[in-house]
Amino acid sequence: MIKIKFEKKILLIYVVLGVLFFGVMSISEDIKNMELWHPETGHHEILNDQIQQIINRDMNLADTEKNNDNHKGDLVVTGPVRVLGSVESRVNNEELNQGNSLDDTVDNQNFQMNILHQYNIFSIRNHEDGEDDNKSKNKLLPISKSIRQYGQIVCECEESSDLLNVYEIEKLTHQPIEKGEITNDLERIQKAIKIKNGQWNASFYPKILDMFSQKGKGLGCIIEDFPEYQTVPYNGTIPDIFDWRNANGTDWTTPIKNQENCGSCTAFGILGALETIIQLNVGTPFKCDLSECHLFFGGGGLCQTGMKISDAISYLKLFGVSEELCCPYAKGRTGYNEMPKNWEERTVRIRSGNVISYTLDNIKNALLQYGPLVTSLEVYEDFYAYDGGIYSHVYGKYVGRHFVTLVGYNNDKGYWICKNSWGTQWGENGWFNIKFGQGNIGETTFYLTGISGNIQPFPPSNPNPYHNATNSTCTTTLHWTSKDPDNDTLFYTIYFAEGDKVLMEDPFRIVYNDSFYHLTNLKSNTTYSWKIVAEDEHGSQTESKTWRFTTIENIPPQVKILQPQQNYLYWGKKIIPLPFAIPIIVGEYEIFGIANDDSEIKEVLFYVNDMCESIVTQEPYIYTLKDSGPLPKIYKITMEAYDIYGNSAKDEILVRIFNPGIFNFFTDNRYMFQC
User: Fold this and answer.
1) Contacts of 277 (CB under 8 A, 6+ apart)
2) According to the 3-state scheme, what is the secondary structure of 2-48?
3) pTM summary value
4) CA 364, CA 346: separation in Å to the nearest integer?
5) Best label site of 61, 240, 431, 543, fewest CB within 10 Å?
6) pLDDT tens for each residue of 241-295
7) How far apart are CA 289 and CA 295, in angstroms?
8) What is the per-residue DSSP string for 534-554?
9) Catalytic pick from 258, 362, 420, 454?
10) Where does the pLDDT of residue 133 fall: very low under 50, low under 70, confident under 90, or very high at 90 and above?
């Protein structure tokens, strides 16, 4: 008898478990088979009464062949969300009209929340279309993932007194941003930031809109599962604020780049980290510039679909990546197909890339221990409008996943500091801050170790003539400095051209192991541009900035002393020929000359015995020579002219001055000009 009862109990338990199992599975199928399921985001959209009917088993929705066993995301409810009662309860029309919200009966809905969580539904969003918008009860009803992880199933609800604004925000949750309506969408994003107490600014730039309109949308992260996640210890003190852009006063990061309309974020995110790590290994920042084109296409990436980070890591370990000049990103796949034969000698490799556990402390430890990290985040439409501040998602549809470079954090304000690959117009000159946990940032995070291979030379710097110099002569010498971190011998290619731009097609001159070059016969009053490419023994190259200088006219003016002339005596207005060369002047006399130039004469200086006595800035160029002594003296008279570019020329003559005291009426009135 006891055995029979025991068997009946076992049978009853199996029956109950079977009913629960098939009931749960049926609910799962109903939710997955809804007509408004979004396969890209994993979000489902249903009507408000359908969610209650599914849980109460009053409704079986038709199969639309959009099943997805890996669904996760939000259950978006169109219409006001009503009370979820017990399984046996029914919500009548009167209760529906009362508009009771989901959080009114949180304590009584654990069963229903557990059901939703079993299908990885983490939040319920109210998405209501009503005739009277001002009377709409609109609430955001996310089921907290963090609380769920600690075993509690609750609904965190968020409400605003500005019901119209909340309605406007949530009504367009699943409407993509269109370029033609961007002004209105920007206003809605800005309004959403205000309502939800966001700490960031929003604006749009044309290039970002072009990127958003492309299939890749400036993203390219392919979701992967990894078998093992590492915990990273750190023995030092973890600071409250850290930023590799200002680590003990040094910026170790490299300039912002732009992936344009290609889903190549994986390559940009990982190389943004690797470039800084290389500089840390070298011991000085030098604007390391690696080729995203090489890594992306070499590792199997496609602009339309993106690239797996596991493929990028494997490629860096096996083959490495060359410098930017070996495979320029601007040339795309063509540049990759046309890589030079020596590309393998020019690569830098890593020993390992390791994915770490998704905790704040673990990410911070890795950041401090190994340098910048490559990390992923979920991108929503409002992220494209980020223009500074601390980003948090407030508006718009899920777009895709994105890899960026994580360089720092701020514990006090609770955000990560990241480097994006959308150019300097976006965000804070290409950088952004994002609240901890927003967009699940950090969920997939890698650190890199073990740098080997050939490191590119430092970019040439310290130009002479200096950049934008305006006083170079038509015969000048170019100087620069450079260095190789591997101590390789360097040789240089000079690109030189008249005008503001340098064409990188044909080199002007190749100079082996010399960091200078002499230029002659340049045009006057002309701007020249130049650039230096340094190359090491393995073929790795790096280029300088483009420098410019402007030449000045270096043709001296024409200058001539007309009076006095040799072989003459000058006494008042009388001019008497003499048998000897040195002219004689009796009494006071005006030294007169001419000065001409193709540009303009700036000034004429008169010297007596190498002492400047007069400066004349306009014609006629005259200086009155006087002497009060009774005995004759010989003087050297010099006339020197300068043009507006500083070019000069001079003429000289020796004169004998004789002023007997009987003819001298100016003894006490000598007039001297001082320079």
Assistant:
1) 370, 371, 372, 448, 451
2) HHHHHHHHHHHHHHHHHHHHHHHHHHHHHHHCCCEEECCCCEEEEEH
3) 0.64
4) 32
5) 240
6) 999 999 999 999 999 999 998 999 999 999 999 999 999 999 999 999 999 999 9
7) 13
8) EE-TT--EEE---EEEEE---
9) 420
10) very low
8 Å CB contact between 212 and 380 = no
Alpha-carbon span 310 to 403, nearest angstrom: 13
Helix axis angle for 2-32 and 48-55, nearest 10°, is 160
Active site residue 265: yes
Check 402, 418, 538, 647 and give the catalytic one.
Answer: 402
pLDDT above 70 coverage of the chain, percent: 69
Q: Any catalytic annotation for residue 38? A: no
Decide if pLDDT at 86 tops 60: no
DSSP result, 146-205: HHHHTT---B--B--S-HHHHHHHHHTTT----GGGHHHHHHHHHHHHHHTT-EEEE---
When computed from its CA atoms, the radius of gyration of the chain, rounded to whole angstroms, is 41
Strand order in the sheet with 121-127: 36-38, 43-47, 73-78, 121-127, 140-142
3-state secondary structure 456-501: CCCCCEEEECCCCEEEECCCEEEEEECCCCCCCCCEEEEEEEECCC
Q: Which residues, 6+ apart, have CB-to-CB distance to 524 below 8 Å?
A: 474, 551, 552, 553, 554, 555, 645
Q: Which of 155, 262, 265, 326 is catalytic?
A: 265
Give the SS3 label for residue 206.
helix
Q: How many residues does the chain have?
A: 675
Q: Is the pLDDT of residue 80 over 50?
A: no
- pLDDT tens digits, residue range 174-214? 344 454 445 568 889 999 999 999 999 999 887 777 777 77
- 659 catalytic? Reply is no
Q: Which residues contact 399 (CB under 8 A, 6 or more apart)?
A: 217, 219, 379, 380, 381, 383
Contacts of 2 (CB under 8 A, 6+ apart): none
